[in-house]
Amino acid sequence: MTPFGAKLRELRAARGVSLKVMAEAIGVSGAYLSALEHGRRGAPTWYLVQRIITYFNVIWDEAEDLERLAQESDPRITVDTAGLSPKATQLANRLARHIGTLTEAEITALLALLDAHAGARRPR
User: Fold this and answer.
1) Are 63 and 11 in the same domain?
2) Do the domain assignments include residue 81?
3) Closest CA to 20 of 11, 29, 10, 12
4) pLDDT tens by residue, 20-30
């Protein structure tokens, strides 16, 4: 399941909406919506995310959160390290090879490290 899929399922459950009802309302098949939730489809398009935001009538922070999660939810990501240092290529390959063996705590720690790095690089 992707982060976007988990959030989508959480929103549906909180509002008591079935997959079938939601799929019909936003103009996709129930099979597609299920595959999107389970991470068997790529990241949703911006247009689909906007239909979901409208369907659930979410605003501001929650809408931005859905958009961000959609961008971070491609289950088949490719990392291009061409032109980067050998250590960057080594890191990408090791992560690809070992991501399935990391614990949730280790993944959380790595995400926190990346978030801290991104925050330190943002202009103030």
Assistant:
1) yes
2) no
3) 29
4) 999 999 999 99
- Give the mean model confidence (pLDDT) for residues 29-55: 93
Helix (H, G, I), strand (E, B) or coil at 74: coil
Does 60 share its domain with 102? no
* 63, 90: one domain: no
Q: Which residue has the tokens 């202009």?
A: 123
Rounded CA gap, 32 and 111, in Å? Answer: 29
- For 13-62, the three-class secondary structure string (H helix, E strand, C coil) is HHHCCCHHHHHHHHCCCHHHHHHHHHCCCCCCCHHHHHHHHHHHCCCHHH
> Measured in Å, how far apart are the chain's first and last C-alpha atoms?
34
pTM: 0.70
Confidence of residue 65 (pLDDT cuts 50, 70, 90): very high
